[in-house]
Write a structure and sequence with these properties.
DUF3243; mainly alpha
Length: about 90
């Protein structure tokens, strides 16, 4: 099963990656910019595997660049307390 198949697994995966990046000294601005780039990639290249991902994709595609940055920032905040190590 892929982490994309289940939204909770996806949030845990993102949370783990976020905590790993923070522990390696990546600052919040760099993390948010990376989240923006990943959001764009997922929107354009990866099929939604569940309802939550489908909604995020629709929101991403309807948003302008500034709004997409806001979505990416919100996703980072959403997964800050997630992850298998928490």
């Amino acid at each position: 099963m892929s982490v994309l198949d289940n939204f909770e697994s996806w949030k845990d995966f993102l949370g783990d990656r976020l905590h790993q990046a923070e522990s390696q000294g990546m600052n919040q601005q760099a993390i948010t910019e990376l989240a923006y780039e990943i959001g764009g990639y997922l929107s354009n290249q990866v099929d939604a595997k569940n309802d939550q991902e489908a909604v995020l994709r629709e929101m991403w595609n309807a948003a302008n660049k500034e709004e997409q940055h806001a979505i990416a920032n919100i996703m980072v905040k959403l997964v800050q307390s997630e992850g298998t190590g928490r």
